[in-house]
UniProtKB/TrEMBL annotation:
NCBIfam families named among the record's database cross-references: hnRNP-L_PTB
SUPFAM superfamilies named in the record: RNA-binding domain, RBD (SSF54928)
Alphabetized GO MF terms: RNA binding
Species this chain originates from: Gadus morhua
Gene Ontology biological process terms from the UniProt entry: mRNA processing; negative regulation of gene expression; negative regulation of mRNA metabolic process; regulation of cell shape; RNA splicing
Keyword annotations of the record: Phosphoprotein, Repeat, RNA-binding
Pfam families on file: RRM_10, RRM_5, RRM_8
Name of protein: RRM domain-containing protein
Amino acid sequence: MSSANGNDSKKFKGDIRSPGVPSRVVHLRKLPNDINETEVIGLGLPFGKVTNLLMLKGKNQAFLELNSEECAQTMVSYYSSVTPLIRNHPVYVQYSTHKELKTDNSPNQVRAQAALQAVNALDGEVVGDMGCPLSQSPVLRIIVDNLVYPVTLEVLYQIFSKFGVVLKIITFTKNGQFQALLQYADGMAAQHSKLSLDGQNIYNACCTLRISFSKLTSLNVKYNNDKSRDYTRPDLPTGDSQPPMDHQAMAAAFGMAPGLISASPYGGAHGFPHGFAVCSPPCVGLSMAGIPGALASMGVHGLSGLTAAGGHNVLLVSNLNPESVTPHCLFILFGVYGDVMRVKILFNKKENALIQMSDGTQAQLAMSHLNGQRLHGRAMRVTLSKHTTVQLPREGHEDQGLTKDYSTSPLHRFKKPGSKNYSNIFPPSATLHLSNIPPAVVEEDLRGLFASSGSTVKAFKFFQKDRKMALIQMGSVEEAIESLIEFHNHDLGENHHLRVSFSKSTI
């Protein structure tokens, strides 16, 4: 039986073009420079017990020995269809020509053995007769602890699809905690993502993932909306305001009495409790560079602009109504969730626009609250763009006023550090909060103003203690969105410009 010795790296040259002959030793290539032993072991763990490890850091390679050839075969065949990513580097997996590993007492190997012992002590995996893990449920239960920033269905999809094909996601709030059920195409992907992601932070020092296997083996998704999605059934209705999963099925999933779970008791896009401050100014625009434990270091980018790259702060908005939408209208609406720097409606595809926010956190907030909302009869699709800035047209190039720079606009809501607007960010709702109302303006004036655009005014109420503020309830969320766009900053006389935002209250 040939063996590999820790000091004798010359023997490893033959492994680069290893024949596909199964062996319980697996050869890993193109590893990132700063990879650690635990991350390498993590690649093998879903497939069986890792019995030995040899790191060749200078060559960006490693060898993993599993406890049986069958487990190694499962690992190599799985990674032939799903390339593993570590810190955004694709890692290549193949059989080694060596049948077993022999390691020595060099410092490198002592460290590798210590990491192996630590992982094996923690890993109480259920194993079958071959010593390979028994197939787990493809459904994961995910709890997000310390929810400082919104975590949307899109964010979860982006993170978890790094590890396999995501079929379905259901999100809900239970006991004040944001949770999700996520179904993969196979149990192996679920195992791999659980091992890689459990305990990781989505954003710097917050939004910690707690992952366990669900008792369910399949999810029944009835609606495709911001709380649930079946990626295999794009034809499903949105079922607005319906709970995404029937309560009995969810109760069965968690072994509890029916009726205890509400899909979103607060009615907000993420089930935030009343008065929840999404962010206070110190956390805006944090960089993840050099912060261990944040998913950016694992190559899960494009989440919020809080990544080492410094900012996904440009949004792509599609399915707009080209007849009605203007840069100003997008500036006012997206300005509810952050300071809009530039807007560009695409010249050749006017149903699409690029919107540059002042930082990635604000882009994430705007995306999580506005994706799927209706504007001028169409449901907007809001995603993160690959662009880092919105280019202004070159001098002398006319673009029909489709690109606007708002970087010096006096209408930015979040310019002042500590602005109380941070704690008044709510999802679009039919009820609008009005402020800066001059004393001479009465209820009839404001009802008449908001009805003048053709919308229905259902109810109106001044604040008892402060008549500069009022609530006005429109006929629908879509009408409220269009009224906010039209009447925010409306001149009411006496040097008072009306301020309009979405309210969490109803009248």
